[in-house]
Design brief:
The complex is a heterodimer.
Chain A lengths: L4 H34 L2 H32 L3 H33 L11 H22 L2 H31 L4 H33 L7
Helix pairs in contact in A: 1-2, 1-3, 1-4, 2-3, 3-6, 4-5, 4-6, 5-6
Chain B lengths: L4 E10 L2 E11 L4 E5 L6 H8 L9 E9 L2 E2 L5 H7 E4 L11 H11 L5 H14 L3 H4 L12 H14 L4 E5 L7 H14 L4 E5 L3 H7 L2 E6 L2 E7 H6 L4 H7 L5
Parallel strand pairs in B: 3-8, 3-9, 6-7, 7-8
Antiparallel strand pairs in B: 1-2, 1-4, 4-5, 9-10
Helix pairs in contact in B: 3-4, 3-6, 4-6, 6-7
The chains are: A mainly alpha, B alpha/beta.
Function (chain A): Plays a role in the regulation of phosphate uptake.
Subunit structure (chain A): Homodimer.
Subcellular location (chain A): Cytoplasm
Chain lengths: 218, 250
C-alpha cells in the first residue's frame, strides 16, 4: 500500500528544485567563462545579476526542507535526503558565487588584450561543468559509483590548476606588465578549482543519502 | 540496583497461533528500550511475557527463557515476578474507589508492609519519583478519579514504583494523553531509567526516538532489528525497518 503520498511528492519536489538550481549554476559557470574568453563586460554583468535568482532558489530549498522537518518528522533515508538536500543547495549556491567571481574578473579586465590564449582555464571550466552534471546525475540516480568518480575528476582539475598557476608565474617573470592580469587569471583558476571541490561535496552528500556513510572525495 | 533481562528463543502462543517466533535479545539495565512495530506484530505480547501476564490469558502459552540477572523468571512465583517487574498500561487504571494515597499504598500493604510511617514515606517517595507529589500533596485523600488523565497515568507509575521493582514495563503509556501530559511522562522515563530497566511499547515513533536508548523493531512476531535508537532512526540496516520508521507501511 502506498503511504505518505504528499510527503513523497514533496521529496520529489525537493529533487526537482535542486536539479533546476544545478542547471542554473551550470548556466552561470558557462556564462562567466564565455564572458572571460571575450572579456565581455555585458555578459559578465549578466552572470553577476543572475546570482540573485540562484540565492533565491537556495532559500526556497532550505524553506522546503525546514517545512518538511517541522511537519513530517522525517527519519532514516528521508531525513538524510532532506539534510543532504540543504547541504547540496549550499554547495550550489557557493558555486554560483564563484561563477560571479569569474564573471567580475571578465568585467574588470575589459578592454585589455589577453596575455595568453586561454586554453587550460576553459578546459577546467568544461571539467567543472561535467562534474556538476555528474554530481546531479549521481544525486538523482543515487549512484554511488558515479559520485566516487568525482574524486578523479577533481584530481584532474587540481592538476590543471597547478599547471595554470605555474604558467602564469613563468609568464609574469618574463613580462612584468602582465603580472596584474596573470594574478587575476590565477584567481579564476582558483575559483574553478573551488567549484570542483563543491561538486565533490555533492558527491559526498549522495553517498551519505544512499548509505548513511561519511566519505571524503576531496 | 536494576538488572538486565536476557530473553532467549522466546515463543508465545494464543491457542495454536504462534505470536512470538523465537525472540532473543538483551534488555540492558538502566536503559530505556523501545519496542516498535505495526499492530499485531507481537510487541505487547512480548512485554506481557516479561512479567508473566501472557500465561494468564486463556490458551496463552510461552516457551524459551527470560532471565532477570541470573534468575529465571519462569522458575519464580508469578506474583514475585510482578513484584520485581512492574507494569504501566495504555489506559490509566487507578482503583476508582480508592484515594490517591491508597492507590499507591495498596501494593505496599499487600506486600506485607505494616509500618504506617514506612507506608507514608514510601508513598511520598513514589509520588515524587513519578513527578506527581507537588500536584497532589494537599489532596492525598481525594479519590484518584478526581485527577486528570495525565495525572492518573503518573499515579499508576507511582503505584508501580512503590513496590520498588527492578524493571518497569510500559505498554503505550501515553497513547491516551494530551501532548503536555505525554511530555511529562517522557521526562519521567528519562529520569527513571537511571534506577530501572525500562521497556516501553509505543506506536509513537517520535516518542521512541526521544526517550529510548535502544529500539527494537518487531514484525509478524519476529525481531527484525535491534540497535541504538539513533541508528534505527538515521540509518537502519534492514529495509523493513526503514519502511516502517519512515511511515511507508504499517
Amino acid at each position: 500500500m502506498q503511504k505518505r503520498q504528499a510527503f513523497d511528492i514533496a521529496l520529489r519536489q525537493l529533487q526537482l528544485k535542486l536539479l533546476e538550481m544545478g542547471e542554473r549554476v551550470q548556466q552561470a559557470v558557462r556564462g562567466a567563462m564565455d564572458a572571460l574568453k571575450t572579456l565581455d563586460p555585458v555578459k559578465g554583468q549578466r552572470v553577476v545579476d543572475g546570482d540573485q535568482d540562484i540565492n533565491l532558489q537556495e532559500n526556497e530549498i532550505v524553506d522546503l526542507c525546514v517545512r518538511l522537518i517541522a511537519t513530517q518528522q522525517p527519519v532514516a533515508g528521508d531525513l538524510r535526503k532532506i539534510v543532504a538536500g540543504m547541504r547540496i543547495a549550499g554547495d550550489l549556491e557557493r558555486m554560483g558565487d564563484l561563477a560571479v567571481d569569474v564573471a567580475k574578473t571578465a568585467v574588470r579586465l575589459q578592454g585589455q588584450p589577453l596575455i595568453k590564449p586561454l586554453i587550460d582555464i576553459p578546459r577546467m571550466a568544461e571539467l567543472c561543468d561535467q562534474m556538476v552534471s555528474d554530481a546531479l546525475h549521481a544525486y538523482v540516480q543515487g549512484n554511488v559509483a558515479l559520485a566516487r568518480k568525482l574524486a578523479e575528476q577533481d584530481d584532474e582539475i587540481d592538476h590543471i590548476y597547478r599547471k595554470v598557476v605555474e604558467d602564469l608565474f613563468a609568464l609574469s617573470a618574463d613580462e612584468p606588465d602582465a603580472v596584474s592580469q596573470a594574478m587575476s587569471l590565477a584567481f579564476v583558476g582558483r575559483y574553478l578549482e573551488r567549484i570542483g571541490d563543491h561538486a565533490t561535496n555533492i558527491g559526498e552528500s549522495v553517498i551519505y543519502i544512499v548509505s548513511g556513510e561519511r566519505s571524503d572525495l576531496n | 540496583m536494576s538488572q538486565s533481562i536476557s530473553v532467549e528463543n522466546l515463543r508465545a502462543w494464543y491457542g495454536d497461533h504462534l505470536t512470538l517466533k523465537g525472540i532473543t535479545m538483551e534488555l540492558e539495565a538502566n536503559r530505556a528500550t523501545a519496542i516498535i512495530g505495526p499492530s499485531g506484530c507481537g510487541k505487547s505480547t512480548f512485554i506481557r511475557c516479561l512479567n508473566r501476564l501472557h500465561e494468564t490469558i486463556p490458551h496463552g502459552r510461552v516457551s524459551g527463557s527470560i532471565k532477570l540477572g541470573d534468575e529465571d523468571l519462569y522458575r519464580m512465583d508469578p506474583v514475585d515476578v510482578r513484584r520485581v517487574v512492574g507494569m504501566v498500561f495504555q489506559k490509566a487504571n487507578p482503583f476508582p474507589t480508592m484515594s490517591i494515597f491508597e492507590n499507591v499504598a495498596l501494593g505496599l500493604r499487600i506486600g506485607g508492609v505494616r509500618s504506617k510511617a514506612e507506608i507514608i514515606e514510601r508513598v511520598e517517595k513514589s509520588l515524587r519519583m513519578a513527578a506527581l507529589w507537588d500536584e497532589v500533596k494537599d489532596r492525598l485523600r481525594e479519590p484518584a478519579t478526581a485527577l486528570s488523565g495525565g495525572q492518573q497515568q503518573r499515579l499508576c507509575i507511582a503505584r508501580a514504583l512503590a513496590i520498588e521493582p527492578e524493571v518497569l514495563l510500559m505498554d503505550e503509556p501515553t497513547s491516551a494523553l494530551d501532548p503536555g501530559s505525554t511530555l511529562r511522562v517522557e521526562e519521567l522515563v528519562q529520569a527513571l531509567k537511571s534506577s530501572y530497566t525500562i521497556v516501553i511499547v509505543t506506536h509513537n515513533m517520535q516518542q521512541a526516538a526521544r526517550v529510548a536508548d535502544k529500539t527494537a523493531f518487531f514484525l509478524n512476531g519476529e525481531l527484525i532489528e535491534y540497535a541504538d535508537t539513533a541508528i534505527i532512526f538515521t540509518k537502519p540496516s534492514d529495509k523493513r525497518t526503514e519502511d516502517y520508521v519512515t511511515g511507508r507501511f504499517g
